[in-house]
Amino acid sequence: MSDIKLMNTRQYDLKTWIKQYQLSPLPGIGIRINGVILNDPSSALKASISSLTVHLTAGLESSACTLVLEELEGIPDATGPLPGSFIQVHIEYPKPISLFEGYISAVTLSMEAGSPPQTTLDCLDLKGLMMHNRFSGRGNQINCLAAVESILDQYGKFSAKRDIRIPSLNMPLMEQEMESDYDFVCRVANSLDLEFFILQGIVCLRKPAAVTTPVVVLNNALVILSFSKEVCLSGQYGEVRVVSPDTEHKQSSVTSFSDAAKIGGSQTAADIFARLGVEAVHTSIEPWIETKPQAAERAAAIARRQSMKFVTGKCHSIGMPVLSPGRFIEFSGISAGLDSVYYITAVHHMFNQNGFTTSFEFAANSI
After folding, report:
1. Which pTM was predicted?
2. Do 189 and 231 meet the contact criterion of CB atoms below 8 Å apart?
3. In this structure, CATH architecture of domain 14-126+212-227+311-364
4. Alpha-carbon torsion 50, 95, 58, 219, what sign?
5. Ordered strands of the 195-199 beta sheet
6. Which position has the higher pLDDT, 168 or 205?
7. Which of 45, 99, 184, 208 could bridge to 74 as Cys pair (CB 3.0-4.6 Å)?
């Protein structure tokens, strides 16, 4: 379906997207439900698309999509938009770009006087299904990678495409509890400092910032409709200490927040605390830690995650479908306080009668 892969390492030219936006502020939207193309001449599935909102995230929450259709025809049947149906969404801009793959979680029918009937499809990605299923059993010590692969194998086409990069070094054995598949994989991701998200139907479980090349350089203020940026010391620390209470495998490690790779600038919150003479120590007790390398990795993971909350922001721009979570973006020549490189944590694409716009959330650990 898609000619443009958002999981690549390419940097796109802003001028190209500005030109395309001016030519087509409201691109064509393609919808497939259980493989049937909406409004295809050979399909009974017909409707006018009133609005589309796609929320993509590199966080642990599920990505989502809300589609509002008017005068929907061709339901109910096996190919219609019923709860549980497989849905794929792409846009023509000008080449097809896949934005969302998942399932329909809810269907709402509504009508107001003087307006045509509307059908709202609320959709979630694979994570929504994983929240309702439980693979794990209590008391089993199991290799993290083997457990994750076994869980994903259950979901067929929803998990057929994967980008799983779990580091083999210091791989812990984790006890599976009576928890959902979603909760277990999230626990693995948190323990190993991995991102767990789904993009273009690809299940990603990998180290953060896997692609360092900015997806685009925003160097024209005309593409930005609004932005905000916050730098906050609240919740930040100068160093992290990881301790294992296990008397047999008692280990500890100390990691300075200054040791984390700097994103955004040269001064971290740890640098500010040091200048102020504040220790700002965070201690984490981790029962599963058995070796010193594991303790060191865990301390570095906590430092990295917390430091990325030091600088946060939001930007609303013209529609740019190539923006995706898990990539970097650069502002240049926009504002002295904004110009820098940031990590994209979430993207929201919005289509309605007024056009196509994109909002995204970004983060950094230094100024």
Report:
1. 0.88
2. no
3. Roll (2.30)
4. negative
5. 161-164, 202-206, 195-199
6. 205
7. 45
